[in-house]
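Researcher: Re-running this chain for the archive, since the previous output was lost when a drive failed. Same request as before.
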Amino acid sequence: MKVAIITDQHFGARKNSKLFHDYFLKFYNNVFFPTLEEQGITTVVDMGDTFDSRKGIDFSALSWAKNNYYDRLQEMGVRVHTIVGNHTAYYKNTNEVNAVDLLLREYDNVTVYSEPTEVMLGKLPTLFIPWINQENEEKTFKLIKKTSCKCAMGHLELQGFRVNRQIVMEHGLESKLFGKFSRVYSGHYHTRSDNGTVFYLGNPYEIYWTDVSDSRGFHIFDTETLTHEPVNNPYRLFYNIYYEDTDYQTFDSREYENKIVKVVVRKKTDTKKFEKFVDKLYTSNIAELKIVENFEIQGSEDFEAFESEDTLSILNRYIEESEVNLDKSIVQKLLQEVYQEACEMV
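Model: Regenerated structure tokens:
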């Protein structure tokens, strides 16, 4: 039996932005639903964070999700297993009150899991593990020890896996707690990362700048072979353009319509030509433009930033090579947190 696994859809993201929902919809209409139909898939496992805000729902975002996603799945006769994630649990210490249970009761094809539960996917016993918190922690660990399931799917926060391409999670549970399983699939982190047994499958589309050029999509899981195959999302929203006295007249800006663009200036000897380059981007109806011109890191003439390094790598290496009398790991962690917050700002 083949099952579709999708996670961290974050309906209502970026303050219910129409730009983002239009972008999401291209994925669902042109990739997700056609794949389900072509492969005859009638079961979807949603591994959490279906909606973006745990505190409330914008009515427009809810309408969008129902009209463009849940109604379509119901019409197709697709059964949906929905696991509660940290973004859909209202309280931080319990999953009892959660968005997916309250908002989706009208759909008889949707089952919500707020507690760890053994579920049959075809002939495969599978343990669903929702967001682990103070209330369900003991019950969850007891069931993990007791279960005979070979496969687990959930919304887990484990150490040693990538939150995004720049940051590796340093806290959370140890993956060895799930060592009895042949396969563990999880949502929560938005980039793909695995250790051979635990697989973070990543979310379907770009939402923040940290997602730029990173693989996105969903996965098809075979319950008989315990293997999974990615179905990639070909659509992008964020673009980096590297300006090196680029000829604005020959530059093709058409692909950037309704995109979020960052122009990284590596070489600019003629300000007027650069302004015409920027004007051409604006005439292409880009959604948002950022310009980055100064990459100089002050304080050390011996430090060199390499083009192959991302911003966070440069900062971490700069701290590591500095002679400050501080715990460098603490400074690096603070920088990671600030950088992550900055990337997620609207």
